[in-house]
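Ticket closed. Logging final result for Histidine triad nucleotide-binding protein.
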Amino acid sequence: MSECIFCRIVRGEIPSKKVYEDEHVYAFHDINPVAPVHVLVVPKQHVDSMAHLTAEHEAAMGRLMVAAGQIARDQGCTDGFRTIINTGRVGLQEVYHLHLHILGGADPLPPMLTR
Ligand code: 5GP
Ligand code: ZN
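Final structure:
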């Protein structure tokens, strides 16, 4: 069995605050939120990062993107939100199970990157 922390969350071995689940996708609140809404959306099938995606992941990742938009609306992000996928060393990825961050709240978010 995978020791990957997000695989363990998907399997229910580590508790999480679930907001959505379907055949391909699991979504839960980030444990250390940086915005009023901070949800992580992951494919149930383990893949290390966006750089590791292949054609076999197309259906799951398509489902993930559609679900993310629905989850954002369900979380009250009716006037916009931000999605981020950090990848690899340069992207400062911390958890090597691909995940999409949904960030939002009542007020506009800070600039994505400072110049
Ligand atoms: P990354 O930097 O890899 O894009 O983001 C990893 C995210 O996972 C961070 O925002 C961090 O707070 C979150 N995270 C790490 N471990 C856990 C955990 O055990 N449970 C939850 N819900 N979030 C986690
Ligand atoms: Zn995993």
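The longest helix spans residues 58-74. No further action required.
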